[in-house]
């Protein structure tokens, strides 16, 4: 069993503070380092008290069981951070980066703790949405993957391990695919911004809140499942893949999107809007979890040797 | 105000019976015609009693206020049906096709009721998911669009009107975009089928159950909204659009998907699995509706001249 030690949070921006909240909620101590953030700002964001803010990076990471780095997306800055924190962490401590733009091989270049470095990419907000994409680089030690997986599962998250590094990891590639078609619907004059959103919230969104795209088509294939689905609808979907076009985001489209987005949701009281969004997400997650569709317990349970022996 | 008249359901397959259930639930009478379906099968699928099954197409459509055609996806068959039912329906009755594969201009070719013919495409299951994509063709009378929109809204659905016909309409294009990336993740060895599904149900699915893709990025852009988002993340997403590849669905990938799908969800007791799925969808829809994100009432309210005058 993993001990519930201190977590070091490097970078206290939107994502770093989300990580801090999730760690605190699951009973972890949190040590924060951010050269630009002040105590008052962090106090406003974190209601629980078991966190410390450090002036020195070494103080923040020393004695931590896990380091989550959510620094600005500048590769030189990240490389410098890994070099600076390396002397202060234990040999078995994993350093995970929240980066959405760099691949683990970028992060590992010239870094002496490369074996314990990987991408641990959350989805905003990390204290609400459970996904963490673990992406090992070529130099990552397999043990580090297991440590990260167990750690995230202990926070109540649902880590998945990606077996190949690709730009955008996985979830943002899936999001980009939908945004391409959504932008293209507006750019081509097919649908309004509002109607594209309604198309999703009235069909695919609820479906994908309870079942992923593969389980969805498997069940929509009838008793023949995904095999029947591929036989009957596969060619139609492949034709749509070929029909897809990349829209040009010019100033006219940009203006259209900005003006329409303002009518979708008011960000005038931004904090309030985010709070309602987070409550809604938690409510949907808990509703979906009532239905045992994906055998969620089995999936989210951290791998453990006892359990494996029992199952075998 | 529209009167609650009889609805003619042409074709009693999966989609046709879903339409029948939605109509019956909202207090409509339903007249069904299907040369291949028998009374026993329909009795099993429909619990409410205010439906009739007809041997003659003319009998089914005569006196109906709306005709929903969900016949097999063969264009000659559909053209024949429109010709056969035309003499029996009133001049103001709209005929909507549930087709997912044909565009309205295909349907209208050589049809003498083309002005009252449009696509009214639901998302499976039509009695659970509220989306209806109304796609007028070049010959569709603008009045027919308003009639269809009011009719679907009266069934508690959320109709959207597409301003251009495109293969797959809109929602299936969005689904195809995600399936392309999902298939590619598996084909490229990036992720397992199960992990692709988890990536969606743990991040994008819950988000899109409460907010569409545009409202999501608007709120994720911070106080600067979608404008800030486009400035900062636009180039990254456009790079992912260019990085997207079309996977080849060969027999190896096919086999991999089929074997993995079987571990995701059991279709051994298919009816039971579908029932749980439908309950889960209804629960998520009702959870999402508790949060007034998209001003759902305003959006789903059918357009009416009284209301417009009041708002002005």
Query: Could you give a short account of the major beta sheet of chain A?
Result: 8 strands, mixed
Structural class of chain A: alpha/beta
For this structure, the quaternary state is: homodimer
Please bin the fraction of helical residues of chain A.
40-55%
CATH homology group of the largest domain in chain A = NAD(P)-binding Rossmann-like Domain
Strand content of chain A: 5-15%
DSSP strand tally of chain A: 8
Largest interface: A-B, 108 and 108 residues
CATH architecture name of the largest domain in chain A: 3-Layer(aba) Sandwich
Q: Please report the distance between the alpha carbons of the first and last residues of chain A.
A: 20 Å
Assign the CATH class of the largest domain in chain A.
Alpha Beta
What does this molecule look like?
Two copies of one chain form a homodimer. Chain A is an alpha/beta fold. The first copy, chain A, has two domains: about 5-160, Rossmann fold; about 170-265, N-(1-d-carboxylethyl)-l-norvaline Dehydrogenase, domain 2, CATH 1.10.1040.10. Helix content of chain A is about 50%, strand content about 10%. The first copy, chain A, is built from 14 helices and eight strands. In chain A, strands 3-2-1-4-5-6-7-8 form an eight-stranded mixed β-sheet. The longest helix of chain A has 20 residues, at about 270-290. The first copy, chain A, starts with 6 loop residues before the first strand and ends with a helix. The relative contact order of chain A is 0.08. The model of chain A is unreliable at about 295-310 (pLDDT under 50). At the A-B interface, strand 8, helix 7, helix 8, helix 9 and helix 10 of A face strand 8, helix 7, helix 8, helix 9 and helix 10 of B.
């Amino acid at each position: 069993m993993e001990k519930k030690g201190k977590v070091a949070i490097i970078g206290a921006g939107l994502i770093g503070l989300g990580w801090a909240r999730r760690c605190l909620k699951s009973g972890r101590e949190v040590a924060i380092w951010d050269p630009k953030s002040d105590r008052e700002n962090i106090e406003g964001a974190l209601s629980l008290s078991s966190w410390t803010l450090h002036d020195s990076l070494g103080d923040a990471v020393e004695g931590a069981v896990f380091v989550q780095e959510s620094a600005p997306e500048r590769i030189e800055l990240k490389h410098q951070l890994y070099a600076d924190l390396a002397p202060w962490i234990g040999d078995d401590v994993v350093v995970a980066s929240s980066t959405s733009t760099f691949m683990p091989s970028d992060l590992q270049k010239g870094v002496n703790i490369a074996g314990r470095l990987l991408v641990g990419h959350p989805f905003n907000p990390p204290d609400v949405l459970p996904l963490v994409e673990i992406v090992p680089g070529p130099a990552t030690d397999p043990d580090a993957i297991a440590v990260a997986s167990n750690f995230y599962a202990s926070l109540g998250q649902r880590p998945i391990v990606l077996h190949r590094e690709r730009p955008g990891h996985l979830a943002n590639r899936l999001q980009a695919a939908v945004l391409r078609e959504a932008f293209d619907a507006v750019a081509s004059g097919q649908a309004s911004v509002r109607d594209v959103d309604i198309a999703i919230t009235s069909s695919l969104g609820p479906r994908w809140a309870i079942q992923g795209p593969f389980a969805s088509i498997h069940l929509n294939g009838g008793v023949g499942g995904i095999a029947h689905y591929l036989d009957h609808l596969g060619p139609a979907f492949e034709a749509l893949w070929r029909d897809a076009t990349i829209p040009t985001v010019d100033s006219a489209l940009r203006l259209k999107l900005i003006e329409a987005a303002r009518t979708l949701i008011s960000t005038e009281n931004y904090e309030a809007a985010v709070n309602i969004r987070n409550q809604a997400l938690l409510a949907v997650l808990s509703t979906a979890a009532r239905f045992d569709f994906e055998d969620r317990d089995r999936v989210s349970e951290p791998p453990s040797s006892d359990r494996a022996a029992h199952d075998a």
